[in-house]
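Standup notes
- DV: blocked on the single-chain target, sequence here:
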Amino acid sequence: MNVVQHAFQSYGDMHGQDLAFGTDAAGTFRVVDTRGYVETATWPTWGWREIDGQTGVKRIAGGPDGLAWVALENGTVHRMVNEYSWEQMHNAFVTKDIGIGADGTVKIVDSDGRIHTKVDGGSGWEENHKFFAASRLAITSDGMAWTVDKFNGKVYKQVIGGSGWEEVGGVLARDIAIGGPSGDVWIIAQDGLSLNVYRDGSWESEDYYLGGVEAGSIAVDREGHPWFVGSADGLLYHAFREYLEDLEALADNDTIGLQIEIQGHPRDPLQVLQSYRGNPQEVYRLTVKKYLPADLEKRLRERLEEAGIYTTDEPAEASSVVTPTRPGGLTPADIRQARKTADWTQAELAAKVGVSQKELSLWERAKKPIPAQREKKLRGVLGDYLAGADIP
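- DV (later): unblocked, structure below
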């Protein structure tokens, strides 16, 4: 898949050097800002909370408890004890990168390119990986390392059950990250201008082009979507189109409730995106502070409207599918097809009929029968558009 320029959108006004997601249930998102402080994203306000007690941070990794481990400019390693305090981890080397697997395995790269693993339950580190040229690394859910060769950008993965390494050819990288439900491996290309992903045993056939933005460091969120820091502007970017594809897939499943809250004029930025996946309390939000391309915004709005996503503050109601009971009555497909022929949004048609968008959405999704009086009004409003769709 070749991802075009608008697939990646900058996220908010935060400027950073590195970023990481925890593998905890919340997918805790932390950033190293340009001052070397650690900032934590706060949900659902999408603000930032500065973590006191640590400065001079260069690299960061998130653990299964949501707490961060960091490497400082001076090469020392520190871990968060809680949201308010840090503990320095003893090491006799200068740390250049750090990674944590979902199983809690912690590994670091030292200034000589060697990889060390934190001794489980102890205070020391173990170096037996027989790799001497690492620059960046990422850790799988079972504690195995993937790394980037600092001399040539080649990617290697640790051989399970041993201390050897296997080259994963086909790409050259500058940074690497692992995450998401499937444990996909994402890399930033050596020139920083594209991403690629290793899944199902191979790299994607086409790169994910970043539209001229140069990426410096990368992380993967709990949904498996890549985020990166722009090396020139320090802004945070995420794969917006990846979210859109997920929403489309979810919208096709009637058992999952979805909702969108759009603030402001249709040409204003999309501020908040919410999806309720079975549990209304488990809310995923996406903020885009830039203007969306008009075609992408139109596609997003139409797709979500068709899926019954409303501009309300209430989660979508769960209900079984109901079909029209009157012989010859309008079907949900009739309404959707005629509305598209008229080029009206769901909200526009609802206003013309004199019902709420939510009510119209229930009709279009066959979640609720259409009252006879409302069907008469619908036929009157849609008129020739129904005829154009070959509906009697």
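- Follow-up: The first strand starts at residue 8 and ends at 21.
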